[in-house]
Specification:
178 residues, alpha+beta
């Protein structure tokens, strides 16, 4: 975000001064200058602001973890992942559906939903350090942490995170999900 201010703010200020050059000094010139600065800045990052608001609404209403069975203790599970793009948003937002199955019975144990938000056109155009994520908000929300806590609480073995010898995540001390 600081990169955007340092690079683009002088250009916007010059443009606003150029646009208000022939207006008589006073309150009208000041308000016109502020209006041009605000409008220029919103044109540049407006897609990310509006997309961030939509992303925030989706994160507020959508993600969650739905447990579909009563007995969770000691199951061997595997999670599948399906991603679809959300339509009618100014930035790219994908909805991720995680479905967790019991390996032995092929029964759906729980489902969770998460969302990924990507930056607007300016973030992709600048592409600073190959970062194409949003500058104004966090790019992910979902129930991943709750899912991992549920797995650990009920002593389930997630075969997605098991090495070929058969050691579970607990045995390998892999704690990258916290």
């Amino acid at each position: 975000m600081i990169f955007l201010l340092v690079l683009i703010l002088p250009i916007i200020l010059w443009f606003a001064k150029w646009c208000t050059h022939y207006i008589q000094p006073g309150m009208t010139k000041l308000l016109s200058f502020i209006g041009v600065v605000f409008t220029s800045y919103m044109i540049l990052i407006g897609d990310e602001v509006i997309g961030g608001i939509q992303f925030g609404y989706l994160c507020y209403t959508g993600p969650g973890l739905e447990v579909l069975v009563d007995d969770l203790e000691g199951r061997k599970i595997k999670t599948t992942f399906e991603s679809t793009e959300v339509n009618l948003t100014p930035i790219k937002i994908t909805e991720n559906l995680y479905t967790t199955y019991d390996i032995d019975t092929n029964e759906v144990v729980f489902k969770s939903v998460g969302y990924d938000g990507y930056g607007g056109w300016l973030a992709h155009w600048i592409n600073f350090n190959d970062f194409k994520g949003p500058y104004l908000f966090d790019g992910y929300c979902g129930g991943g942490k709750a899912r991992f806590e549920l797995i650990e609480l009920h002593n389930m073995t997630d075969v997605d995170y098991t090495n070929p010898v058969g050691q579970s995540r607990e045995e390998l001390r892999i704690r990258d999900y916290k």
